[in-house]
Write the structure tokens for this entry.
Amino acid sequence: MNRKNLFLLLLLSASYVCQAQNKPGIVSNLPTGLKTNLPFEISPKGGMAMPSAGLKNASFLNNGWLGGLDISLPVIRPKKNPKSFNFNLGFDAGIDYSSFTSNGGLDFVKNNYQLSNGSLNPYFDNSSNQAKALQISIGPRISLSYKKIHLTPSLQLGYFNFRQNGYSILDTVSNAAGVQSTIPLLFAKETNTNGLLIRPKINIGFDVTRYMRIWVGSSMSMGPDINNDYHIWQPDKKTLNNSISTDELIGGRAVLQRTNTPFQLFNIELGVKMGLGITPLSKPGIKFPQSMPPLSKSAYKDNVITAADKIKKNSTTTATQKTKQANANGALSSDNAMARYNASAPEIVFPANNTKTSLINNDLRINFKGSNTDNVQYELNIWTEKNGRKKNVLQQTYPYDWDGSVKDFGNIIDKKGKDIFHAQITAIPGSKDDKIKPKNNNTDYRNVQQEGTPVFTNRGISAPVVFSISAGCFPNLTLDLDSTKCVDSGKTKVWGHVTLASVTGITVTSITITDFRENNFSGPAVPVSNLLPGTSLPPTSNSPFSFNVDKDMCGKLLFMRILITYTCVLTNESVTVPCADTITMPCCKCNYCADSMKISSQSSGISYNNSNNLAQINQSFSVTPNNITHVTAEIVYMSDSVNDPACNICDAKPESVYHFTGTNTMSWNGNTPLNASAANSATSFPSKIISWQCNNNGNVSFILNAGLPDIPKLKCCETYTRICIRYSFTDANCKKCDILVCYSLSYSTGSGTTEENGTGNTKN
């Protein structure tokens, strides 16, 4: 049988196996608890092929390399029990190609021909002396598995072809008279052998993911004899391994020598197995509690039912309904109505091996990585342990967009020293709009997988962590990314600042930048310049900064994180806490604002009007070269704080706070000031947005008035205010460009001091 016919026979055998799995008669005869499953599993591999000692000696071979491809066809997979060993039955088919280096008998010649009056220098006649082997095989296998470990023995039959090129080993010697002769010391004919292959195999694998497994294994390839024909030069009167003269060597003759050696290879293989289609290589053993008190903290892993039992319990759902639901969700296999997709459990993380939690302005901040789905809510549990006893401190459920903040946590800690807490976060299947509640008092809703809900890894529960809170350390530390500007096509400039307010009782020692990423923790690192990770900012009350984003992030969220290190005066303990902020990046597809409308800030300032409790803002720009037809000013950000909580008071006119009020003017090139129009629905002040109509370019100056919070009556109180105003200019081409300027101000009863201005930007 030639190779082509044998290969066709192997393909027909595999086809019969595939068809047999789909015949109703075969499925109906399977034992109870077994099911058919036909995911193709493909496995590229490589390794070493080592001929047996006899084959090495007979064919003068060395070890060689091996490459190939295996295809697995699982036929029967019992339902997986995560607590015990599991198995599945199937067929493995493979094709292997091996190439062997060969010394071609050169060592044999050197060792066996010893001249008494000189030495030999044998050489090849430029012929190739390598050997190659092709193996194609198929056979049954059984896979034994426990958790992620798999042991797979198999026995395969098939076809092999072994080919070794013919070659000659020559040497040129001279007799006593100086006459040269070329001696064919060894001449090997080409070898080409086909035959039936028997190949037992075993490998051990480890699941890297549900769809990929790495494995290492070994096999023994056994076939019929390899016939080798050699002509070996026999010296005159002397046998090999004795010292012979040149004349005796020249007077010799070629003698035929034939060997018959079984084809035997020992193979060591390493490969990666991947499942094709949506069916995974292995399926997790999902466990569901049957009847437990809600929100129980006790271990419930001995009171579970399997996903298959859950399907039987919900047998009122018809197969047609399941199929429709699967098509709608796009990720449901026909034999598992529970798993729409896998969702990750939340994780309380260490940013750069620093503190995972902090207490900022009396609020607890937990640094955590949420689930990879927004179809979720989070349950936070915090407790203390003393003398082996557990005391619950807090149990609260938060929505899918929870940022890790716990309000007023500082009210429950020890005011004299340090408290040690334990925390754990559980992801609860839910949605953005609906809260998931237990169906009855005996249902632990954190682990019941309802139709259409995600299946969480690690049961949706994060690993518990320990954190400590020191008394007197309640700083107000914030990171704010204020604005962005397109500086080139696909590149952006970002401005921001770090605020250290209400820091009584602590000493800030360092502010270090650690991360620039897309989409919080889950996105890739973002390349930036002028402010690289590891850079330190000055630990002052207001640290402005800017940096360039060196990639196109059109419409994406930029995430920035810093670490602020401070020392508690009371306990002398050094604490490092993370602060983070995100900002939506613009689409920098053109540079109209940079190239066609040039806006630059000439001067800016802010002062306190004590008589009217107003912030008066003076701002000048140069706007060229096009005429500007419409100008707006909008208050887009504001914040305030006091130096002591006792200074907080209620505003008498809260509707005026941080709104434009009074007279707000704009003048071009020193000409007559123009009064602004309010842009609210009543077209009257106070207003967040004001505007002017015009037809000018050049130097423009603004004098604006914004209402401030009421002044505390105590002279020891001081108020800190930050206001950001976006100025928008529309030119005669109907193109609009913005510039953002932020102003900081501190004031108290009977006085007013300024803290200069912020930074601006232009954009489309």
The longest strand covers residues 614-642. Residues 3-21 form the longest helix (19 residues). The helical segments are 3-21, 24-28, 53-59, 106-112, 246-250, 307-313, 319-329, 592-595.
